[in-house]
């Protein structure tokens, strides 16, 4: 498990690098990255399970503790959305405000899922645009993980699916988990 530190003009932001041992997060940019002049719709997946959470019961992501992030999705739900996992382990990294997350390790192997928060405005950290249900997001596929980012008021949701060798399956997993979690936050 490791963290990456990204130096952003006028601010030092400690970033959860998916508690992985490889790669680093790209620095946020003010303009979304595009590939050529192609204006196609962003990629989207349909999660294997969904939920409806009344607005008054949704958790404000910007205020959620690391322990609360572990409660946004249960091990049974992650087993349906991804693969069987152990109970989540809360993590807090950095100073004010701390970057919070919860890592769910697979029952077997080196795979894991991280649900975390980033500062507001970091939804564009990913390299490719994706659709997370009705919300836009971005994702980045690296050698050993795929990370999805989605903006909500006051924070950015980060979901990272890690594997020994990541491919599009990890991105689909991260997108599905992100959509499930987004239904329960505001």
Structure description:
- This protein is an alpha+beta fold and 186 residues long.
- Helices cover 15% and strands 33% of the residues.
- It contains 3 helices and 10 strands; from the N terminus they run βββααβββββββα.
- A hairpin with a 5-residue loop joins strand 4 and strand 5 (99-105).
- The longest helix has 15 residues, at 168-182.
- The protein starts with a strand and ends with a helix.
- Mean pLDDT is 82; it is low at 1-37.
Q: Report the order of strands and helices.
A: EEEHHEEEEEEEH
Helix/strand-derived category reads alpha+beta
Q: Mind describing the biggest β-sheet?
A: 8 strands, mixed
Terminal Cα span: 29 Å
- Radius of gyration (Å): 15 Å
Percent in helix: 10-25%
Total count of helical runs of at least 4 residues: 3
Side-by-side strand order of the widest sheet: 3-7-8-9-10-6-5-4
Stretches where pLDDT is under 50 for at least 5 consecutive residues are: 1-37
Strand proportion = 25-35%
* Number of distinct beta strands: 10
Briefly characterize the structure.
With 186 residues, this protein is of the alpha+beta class. Helices cover 15% and strands 33% of the residues. It contains three helices and ten strands.
Give me the secondary-structure topology.
Layout: E1 3-8, E2 11-16, E3 43-44, H1 66-70, H2 75-81, E4 89-93, E5 99-105, E6 112-119, E7 128-132, E8 135-141, E9 145-152, E10 155-162, H3 168-182
Parallel strand pairs: 3-7
Antiparallel strand pairs: 1-2, 4-5, 5-6, 6-10, 7-8, 8-9, 9-10
């Amino acid at each position: 498990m490791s963290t990456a530190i990204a130096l952003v003009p006028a601010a030092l932001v400690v970033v959860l690098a998916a508690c992985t041992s490889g790669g680093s997060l790209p620095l946020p940019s003010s303009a979304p990255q595009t590939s050529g002049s192609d204006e196609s719709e962003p990629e989207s997946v349909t999660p294997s399970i969904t939920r409806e959470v009344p607005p008054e019961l949704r958790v404000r992501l910007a205020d959620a503790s690391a322990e609360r992030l572990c409660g946004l999705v249960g091990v049974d739900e992650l087993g349906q959305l991804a693969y069987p996992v152990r109970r989540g382990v809360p993590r807090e990294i950095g100073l004010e405000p701390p970057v919070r997350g919860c890592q769910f390790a697979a029952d077997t192997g080196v795979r894991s899922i991280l649900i975390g928060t980033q500062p507001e405005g970091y939804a564009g950290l990913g390299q490719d645009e994706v659709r997370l249900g009705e919300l836009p997001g971005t994702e980045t596929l690296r050698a050993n993980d795929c990370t999805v980012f989605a903006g909500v008021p006051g924070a950015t949701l980060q979901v990272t699916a890690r594997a020994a060798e990541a491919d599009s399956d990890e991105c689909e997993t991260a997108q599905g988990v992100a959509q499930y979690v987004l239904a329960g936050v505001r």
